[in-house]
Amino acid sequence: MKKAIISFAVSIVIGFGLGYLVFGVIMGASDKQPQVAQTEPTEEKAATEDQKEETKTETATVDANNILNSKGCLGCHAVDKLGLKGGATGPDLSKAFTEVEGKHGKPIEEFLKEPTSAVMSSVIGGNPLTDEERTQVLDMLKQASEK
Among 100, 103, 68, which residue's Cα sits nearest to residue 86? Predict the structure, then answer.
């Protein structure tokens, strides 16, 4: 009887340890957001139009990365065109802006409100996007489709 209790206790400790390692350390690593250094032009050296445009693009990518991380999208999807690494379970979203309508029968704006796929219906249904979040995601996916 003591052997059974000890075996059970050891199994629990090992199970929790492995769970922490896999879900806390390995899976949690994808939640870390990259640090992007942004510089602002000084009074002595004004930024050119190209530099201003580049800064806007970097900011849009960082904002999109934040929304994708906060909503858990990068757990299953990547956006290679924007350099956003994520999970391999779902398809790469680099061309989603142009391909969702043909694949799912409705424009991406509507798909993000009410997805037609079973997996995305349960994901978005459990954690719906606000109008502002949906706009951020759409802007990012449009940017990815143009690269």
Answer: 68
Tell me the average pLDDT of the chain. 76
CA-to-CA dists, residue 64 to 10, 89, 122, angstroms: 44, 20, 22
pTM of the predicted protein model: 0.55
* pLDDT value for 109: 92
* Top-confidence residue, 2 or 47: 2
Mapping DSSP to helix (H, G, I), strand (E, B) and coil, where does residue 28 land?
A: helix
CA 81 to chain centre: 13
Block residue for tokens 């050296």: 45
In 12-137, DSSP assigns E strands to: none
